[in-house]
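Re: folding output
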Amino acid sequence: KIKSLLAEKELILKEVNHRIKNNMHTMRSLLSLQAQCMNDAAGIAALEDAGKRMLSMEVLYDNLYQSAGFSDLSIKAYLDVLVEAILKNFPGYETVAIEKHFDDFILDAKRLQSLGIIINELLTNVMKYAFAGRSDGRIMVSATLDSGLVTVVVQDNGRGIPEAFGFENTTGFGLALVKGLTGQLNGEARIERGSGSKVIVEFKL
């Protein structure tokens, strides 16, 4: 009887993740259709950004649906797929070289969801602004685990984030969202400037 109840629970969790993923896809499609009916550039951009944020959650629940546990997931499996899915949303993404390095460790779905949106925001900023006026670029994305500390890095060799913009003085929604989600992870985020920009997010496993 216990085995039967466990099997039923797994089936329910699998179905829930599948339905969430499908609902996310439907909402993302509706946002895209709404954007196509608008003439206001700022409004179109806002809807497109909202759709990209949903994409990170859609990829997560698609991976959870295919996983054995349905409530946690390998961070490597999730981020490998997510990074590619995000970048493919941008015209000319083929000209950008991508370097990925992900340690293979397990994280619960709640924290993966926050982390996915963080990476979406950072990659979106890179693709929008870092390589303006250039025909190529390089992005490095990594997630490592060392002594219980998770370190996530998104780095590029583009024009760099201006000194006037940072997590402490930002007026933009993207960096504010990254800061807020990092807080939900009980972590810290910082920007390092040099040959391009480097954003580091750290939190305890």
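--- second protein (sequence, then structure) ---
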Amino acid sequence: MAGEIKLDILAFGAHPDDVELSASGTLAKAKSEGKKIGIADLTRGELGSRGSAETRDKEARTAAEILKLDIRENLNMKDGFFDLSDENKLKIVRVLRKYRPEIVLCNAPSDRHPDHGRASQLVKEACFLAGLVKIDTKDDNGKSQEKWRPREVYSYIQDHYLSPTFVVDISEYWDVKLESIKAYSSQFYDPKSKEPETPISSKAFMEFIEARSKQMGRYIHVNRGEGFISDVPLKKEF
């Protein structure tokens, strides 16, 4: 059963495609190393100018297959309008306690889309709260969940440039990352599309994604990379 899976990495995204754009290479790499991986989308991306919530649901399922995710869940928060409410924090706490990830990845702390920074704060607060024994949550069967706090929480970098704390080498997994992004065919560049133009639907945006991966890779002397931000210092061995 999905609820019995313990994940090594759980990536949260405000919208379906957030994780694919910014952290899917890292997930693909982890999967190749035998780790259990998953994505939890906060919303269905229903306010997107192109496609529909139903289209995005289908695209997210396709991307999940490409990335070989062990789980993918949608928390059905309100796209564009979710807040830092107790209700939303508890939704995330339940997911954290259900899958008990060692590492959590979340949205950029600030970005062009206001949902991204808000999602980052929401997930980080929930990661702390999930470790408090006096917060009682129930699983799908009505049974009390045990407390769980992820060992590490990192933000991935999205549209705005933010200086990474560390970079993961995804050179061998670029093709998988690109395929998972292209699963969202209604969202991104398609010269035959009749949908409205958006900041992410142009050919230039896909070129930007490729350039960003090369930029991050350059910092660690590899072909392609994905950058992450840690709110706390990381241990370094010499």
